[in-house]
Specification:
Elements: H1 16-25, E1 31-35, H2 53-60, E2 67-71, H3 77-85, E3 89-92
Parallel strand pairs: 1-2, 1-3
Length: 99
């Protein structure tokens, strides 16, 4: 997939028009990789992907993937590279990306 979306913050869901475009553009729904915008901001165990609120936006839009992965500094570099290489969609989450 070579389509890029540059999005700003949403309250609780993707706007209806965006959902329509995403449904048209995302035809391969094997793997969604979410990359933390604050990759060093987690100290506990790996984040449960079901608890990421941006994930809920895709669920609410009925854009369901076979696999979900969340990348931050706790993930091994080789695993992160493999997930990104095989991703159907890469979603860069908000936060403080300068970190």
């Amino acid at each position: 997939m070579k389509t890029h979306y540059y999005l700003s913050w949403f309250n609780d869901f993707f706007p209806e028009k965006l959902v329509k475009w995403l449904h048209e553009d995302i035809t391969d729904r094997k793997s969604l990789v979410m990359i933390s915008g604050q990759p060093s901001g987690y100290k506990d165990e790996q984040v449960n992907i079901d608890d990421i609120y941006e994930r809920a936006w895709f669920d609410q839009a009925n854009i369901i993937f076979d696999e979900y992965h969340f990348i931050d500094y706790r993930m091994q570099k080789e695993d992160a590279q493999r997930f990104i290489r095989n991703a159907s969609v890469i979603f860069l989450c908000g936060g403080y990306p300068v970190l």
